[in-house]
Amino acid sequence: MKDFLGLRPVHHRTEERVRAHIALCVIAAVIQAVIGEDLARPDVRDPDLDDQVMTPRRALAKLGNIRLHRLDAGRPIELVDRPTPLQRRILEALAVDTSPWNRA
C-alpha cells in the first residue's frame, strides 16, 4: 500500500524513522480507503473494466493527466487542461473545487 503515494521501499536505521515510515503507510491506507468510498458513493465506474467502480489508483492516474500550462502573453497566464467527462466525475466525487482553474 505504501506505493499508493509513489513511495518505494526505504531501509531505515533508527526507530524514529521506522515509526515515521509506518505512520506514513497508515495515512496512505486511510487516504486510499476514503477515496475509494468517495468514488463508490456516486458510483463512478471504470470505463475500461466491465461493471467495476473506479479504484483510487486508477482515479489518481486519470487525474494525473490534467496539466497546468503557464503562458506569457504580455502578462503571465496559467491554464489548466479542461477535464474529460470522466475526470470531471472523479473530481466531483472527491469534492475538488475547480472554480479557481483557468482564471486569467
What percent strand?
Answer: 5-15%
Q: Reading side by side through the largest sheet, how are the strands ordered?
A: 1-2
Ends: how far apart? 39 Å
Sequence of secondary-structure elements = HHEEH
Q: Nearest-angstrom radius of gyration? A: 18 Å
Q: Outline the biggest β-sheet.
A: 2 strands, antiparallel
Description:
The chain is mostly helical. The protein has one domain (2-93). The protein contains 3 helices and 2 strands; from the N terminus they run ααββα. It has helices spanning 15-40, 56-63, 85-93, and strands at residues 68-72, 76-80. Strands 1-2 form a two-stranded antiparallel sheet.
Chain-wise SSE layout:
Elements lengths: L14 H26 L15 H8 L4 E5 L3 E5 L4 H9 L11
Antiparallel strand pairs: 1-2
Characteristic key phrases:
3 helices, two-stranded antiparallel sheet, mainly alpha, flat, 104 residues
Q: Could you give a short description of this structure?
A:
This protein has 104 residues and is mainly α.
